[in-house]
Design a protein that fits this description.
The protein is mainly β and 622 residues long. The protein has 3 domains: 203 residues, no CATH class; 229 residues, no CATH class; 85 residues, Immunoglobulin-like (Sandwich). Helix content is 5%, strand content 34%. The chain contains 4 helices and 39 strands. The protein has a 26-stranded parallel beta sheet that branches.
Length: 622
């Protein structure tokens, strides 16, 4: 109760101190057929299906709050030929959320956000109609189609499963092209999938899926985009009767092209630098929802690749589902090097049933949502030759050339706090002793090397073993963006770590900081952002460490010279400490804050520079 109380008070204080003002709610229904801008000094209520029609652009200002009506399952559908320009900022994300009051929001309160494009899909007719009832179609021949931009956007409590295979998700991307920009998106408490990709070529970075009901990243209909930096955090009690996974991927089904003779239109996305935390903190646990199936379920001829990633805490890690011949072969994509499981940490998978090690499970003639993972298909009799050059899935996963590392326990990965108990906010930064950042005397083959130097996270990977490892620089889990990896593409940042985060002791390591919200049910949204509150000359502002005990540092970067005031404000709005008042020039500045006289609690660091203002949450713990 204390956590919820402070969260609500903090949210109210943020609004009342900087943003609160009277506002009107604009009800939006039916179609938007002329170029329209939604401004941050009003709120918007979606009633029923709201269509942005062909040739129309909807622009949404930073900090704007859009709510979905519960009774009509309000949803926003951007149709083929239309654009959405939702350009939030780190300080002022755009928020799509439930119209219910704080404390009363839940899964599926509204319909979610849907983008439709003209990029290729593998429906036999070349196009498909959006699931869930909207009138809109998607698909075409333009891989470079542009549906606009979603950046720094939160989508909360959307997603409705009307019936099996008839669902609206938190964010649905249908035939969306690769000139569309998707980055810094959080989907929380979706009533179906967090994000579902129906074909298309769109790429994305910095995606967060929290407490989804069904799947987190669902890929279908020939989707062939790339995704880098993603997070999944599951609720152990919430799962769908259809079977919940972090990744669910299909290529072929009734109405699609025939996948038996060609893989050219297979679903073949590449996911890199993902940190995926499932519902199981302890592999011996049986308390999680029984409808959880796997971390990744790859089926019906899909060629999804998961590389340079961290996958922990599921009943099964990778579920390779060799479908019946009518769907084409899933495992043939491994032999063709289209489906890669490479440079991953896989840890903490359930050990409650056979097979004992469930890091990877192979089944045949499955292609069902609740495909059993209690028995490995017989490699001698189940058509396993498609794994060539591997003898089977276990050989593929453990081949030293594929650089995967397996651990029995999720805790062996040494993330800071992936399974939080007292707060809904996880901390997924790897600790200094994590195999993501450290080699503990072992090289990437798991060999113990006497005198092997510790990995220097500030330098590139170097696997040169000559001269008694004189130039060698690598953690135990080695990322791979080279010629043998499907992540060998200019889209991907060439990180020297796997998973979504590094640890350089910089506050910038956590790219989820400031704009995400892991407790949206208890967040006060009865405010709007005054137009003049959008930052101008404050380029960035951070407080580190946070939480803090006796000292903190405020880092501020200004884009123009101006007066600067930094204060500490309590939850009543009262200024209790002045950190700095004066004039500053363009550039970065740091200020030490003495917290020894503050008690445990939540505060705001209030920063004003010229006409710009920013408030940063600060937690003080004694």
């Amino acid at each position: 109760m204390k956590k919820l109380f402070f969260t609500s008070i903090l949210s109210f204080a943020l609004a009342s101190i900087a943003n609160a003002q009277s506002f009107t709610t604009v009800t939006v229904k039916d179609s938007i057929s002329t170029n329209t801008t939604w401004t941050s000094n009003q709120q918007y209520l979606l009633k029923g299906y709201v269509y942005v029609t062909n040739g129309t652009t909807l622009t949404i200002e930073p900090g704007t709050i859009i709510r979905g009506d519960k009774s009509t399952k309000g949803a926003l559908i951007v149709e083929r030929g239309a654009k959405i320009m939702a350009n939030g900022t780190k300080e002022h994300p755009i928020i799509f959320t439930s119209a219910q009051k704080e404390g009363n929001r839940s899964y599926g309160d509204w319909g979610g956000v849907i983008l439709c494009g003209k990029a290729p899909v593998n429906w036999s007719t070349g196009e498909g109609q959006v699931e869930g009832g909207p009138r809109s179609f998607y698909g075409g021949t333009d891989a470079a189609d542009n549906s606009g931009k979603l950046s720094y956007v939160r989508i909360e409590f959307g997603g409705v499963a009307f019936s099996p295979n008839n669902e609206v998700n938190g964010l649905t991307l249908c035939g969306v092209g690769n000139q569309t920009q998707i980055d810094h998106i959080q989907i929380a408490y979706s009533g179906d999938d967090a994000i579902e990709f129906f074909g298309g070529t769109v790429n994305a970075k910095y995606l967060v899926a929290q407490a989804s009901w069904d799947d987190d990243f669902d890929t279908d209909n020939g989707y062939s985009g790339m995704v880098q930096y993603g997070v999944v955090v599951r609720d152990e009690s919430a799962a769908d009767v259809s079977g919940s996974k972090a990744f669910e991927s299909d290529s072929y089904q009734s109405g699609t092209v025939d996948g038996k003779s060609s893989t050219s239109q297979a679903t073949q996305p590449i996911f890199s630098n993902m940190t995926i935390v499932g519902p199981i903190a302890n592999p011996a646990s049986t308390t999680y929802n029984p409808y959880y199936v796997a971390g990744a379920h790859i089926r019906r001829g899909s060629a999804l690749s998961l590389v340079n990633s961290v996958l922990v805490g599921f009943p099964c890690g990778i579920l390779l589902d060799e479908s019946s011949s009518s769907y084409g072969s899933t495992t043939a994509n491994i032999g063709a090097n289209l489906l890669q499981i490479r440079s991953n940490v896989i840890a903490g998978m359930s050990n409650n049933s056979t097979p004992a090690n469930k890091s990877i499970v192979y089944v045949k003639d499955g292609a069902r949502s609740l495909t059993s993972t209690t028995a490995m298909a017989d490699s001698a009799t189940s058509g396993n030759t498609n794994f060539s050059p591997y003898s089977g899935p276990w050989n593929m996963l453990k081949d030293p050339a594929n650089l995967n590392v397996l651990f029995n326990l999720a805790q062996d990965v040494k993330l800071t706090n992936p399974f939080p108990s007292s707060t809904p906010t996880p901390d997924l930064i790897p600790l200094s002793a994590s195999p993501i950042l450290y080699n503990s005397g072992k090289n990437y083959l798991g060999q113990t090397i006497s005198g092997l130097k510790a990995f220097d996270v500030t330098k590139p990977i170097n696997l040169d073993t000559t001269g008694n490892y004189a130039n060698y620089n690598a953690p135990q889990v080695v990322p791979d963006f080279g010629a043998n990896s499907r992540a060998n593409n200019a889209f991907f940042d060439k990180t020297n770590y796997v998973g979504a985060f590094t640890n350089t002791s910089s506050s910038s390591d956590n790219w989820m900081d400031s704009w995400t919200n892991f407790d949206p049910n208890n967040t006060f949204y009865e405010y709007v952002l005054a137009v003049n509150d959008v930052k101008t000359n404050i380029e960035s502002a951070k407080v580190f460490p946070n939480p803090a005990t006796n000292n903190a540092v405020v880092n501020v970067t200004l884009t123009e010279s101006s007066d600067l005031t930094i204060s500490i404000v309590d939850m009543t709005g009262k200024k209790i400490k002045e950190v700095y008042t004066g004039s500053n020039v363009i550039g970065a500045h740091s200020y030490n804050v003495d917290l020894t006289d503050l008690t445990t609690g939540l505060y705001l660091v209030s920063i004003t520079s010229g006409s710009a203002h920013q408030s940063i949450k600060l937690s003080v713990i004694k």
